[in-house]
Amino acid sequence: MSTQISHYHKTDRVNVPVMYYVLIYGQIIAGLILWSI
Questions:
Q1: Rounded to whole angstroms, how far apart are CA atoms 20 and 13?
Q2: What keywords is this UniProt entry annotated with (predicted)?
Q3: How far apart are CA 16 and CA 5, in angstroms?
Q4: Full-model pTM
Q5: DSSP notation for 1-37
Q6: What is the pLDDT of residues 1-37, one digit of tens each?
Q7: Residue 25 C-alpha from the chain's centroid
Q8: Which phi and psi (to 5°) does residue 36 adopt?
């Protein structure tokens, strides 16, 4: 059980920058789509 908790914390720490990256990347893609139209 302790290994599952530590693994969850690891993935949780990795997911925070990934979430920001996806949000920024999504805004760029949305901007490009709006520009192309």
A1: 12
A2: Membrane, Transmembrane, Transmembrane helix
A3: 17
A4: 0.47
A5: -HHHHHHHHHHHHHHHHHHHHHHHHHHHHHHHHHHH-
A6: 555 555 556 666 667 788 899 999 999 999 999 998 7
A7: 9
A8: -65, -30
Side-chain half-sphere exposure of 27, counting CA atoms within 13 A: 5
* Domain of 19, in residue numbers: 1-37
- Residue 29 identity (one-letter amino acid): I
Token output for 23: 């949000």
Query: How many domains, in total, are found in the chain?
Result: 1
Q: Which two tokens stand for residue 6?
A: 């530590």
